[in-house]
Amino acid sequence: GQYVSYSDFLEFTFAEDIGGTASWRYWAFELVLTSNKYLDAEVGLDLSENWKAWLASEMGKGSCVAVQNTLNGFINAIDFHQFQVAQNLVKEMSTGIMVAIIVALSVLVLVTGNIFIGFYAAFCIAMIVIWVMAMVPIQGWKLGIVENIALVMVPGLSVDYVAHLAEAYNNAKYDDREHRVIHMLAHSGVSVVSGSCSTLLAGLCLFLCKITFFTKFGIFLICCIIFSLLWALFAFPSILCLIGPRGVQGDWH
């Protein structure tokens, strides 16, 4: 068989000479797993927990029992840490997006004074978030800090467009849906398009940057504005034409 040289052995151990007796401070062992480091975060964390449970059980067997309170064994792997980071990123992103959408829903209901319009607008914002989120795998990216920050900002960037249209719809002096939608688009449609053009121009300037954070953020910003326009000018009016409130229906004040 193949034997480890003494110099290689010393790389994985450390001892101190105390009164002529070697006092071992640590032993290190390296293992190469056959698992793929690109596992899903949940699968990777399960793998990590299984290895930790195995080590704990081994430390409670045989001669390890006598030193288990003195020699604390632990497992360290960079990929195990990355699995935890990935899970935290997904959790924090989901929490941030949900809080942002709930806040947007509350503000829309409060500002428009209509429960139905507020829920329809919040639904459009949620769909915009999903569309922008789909750009991550389409671009071949992995969920990282840049993507996390950008996705949490999407509800705040997209709320303006449907908010202006929702307010115009509810303030229309008509009772039927069709005329209120026409008034909504005529009153706020131009302002929404003009505002999006200025934001798109600002986003295009980010493509001139050489830092990855700014170029990625520029892609997210442009996609967010384009998707917001599509949902605000096409999907949102269509929803209001089909199931929008008539007259004072849904008004809470």
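The above is record 1. Record 2 follows with the same two-line structure.
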Amino acid sequence: SNGSYPPTTTPSFYVIIEPQPPIMSKDAKPKEAAASNAKLALLVVGWYAGNTLYNVYNKKATNMIHAHWFVATAQLVVGMIWSIVMWATGLRKMPNLTAGDIAACIPIGLFASLAHSGSVLASAVGAVSFAQIVKACEPVFAAVVGLLIPPADVKPILAYAMLIPIVGGVGLACIKEGKGVDINVQAFLFASMANAAAALKGKLGSSVTKSLKSDSAKNMDAANVYAVMNIISIACSIPFVVVQELPTLGKEWNHAVEVHGLNGLLTNIIVSGFMFYIYNEFAFAFTSHVGAVT
């Protein structure tokens, strides 16, 4: 006996009859673990496929209209509409949050909006490839933020050593034959802003999201955490549109419609927004299973 079964009040002689596992034939389905691995693989494929399509349509949209803060915000609105449809149709449970819960999510939404807008602006003013190269430095920003903001998140030495090839790779990618170092400074700064904001979002938001997910009454699974964060990001992005682009937004919109047509402009904004939302849902679902480091 292991001391917990059987109870101490029963006789010391007893027989335990354990149910035998079912005998599986050769044609039986794969084990649950294999199905889980297949699910993770599909999430990764969806994540990267969506990201690729997002980059293509985002570049098309930002080439059409010179109002990039507006494009970034409009993309978030597309995601919000998708979330509302999912909740309204009952395909996904609606979050059950208090005012305090929403207030706790505001910093996450703010940094998420800056991370998204920084990426859009970097790709708009420079090549998509260069923006993605600089974005590859995000683990470096995450490591620095983890050390500077309490509680300090100290990683093993080997983890920090792995950052060296990342920085080296980004440096090599900035060197062009016959030209030396060739950096689009504006794109570099916007991409770095996105990296810093993403690192801060991860650092400041991890405890909040864990708390919300742990309470089943709040209906805050990975998909709903991202949906709520996305809606807050819209509210945080609108002031940047007002300050940076509102005076010329009407003129830029009319010019884009005249040159490229309304259908083309709307298609690229809507598709890029939908792809952005979907690939982030896949990413959130994947990291909820395996962790952000993986």
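The beta strands are 175-176, 180-181.
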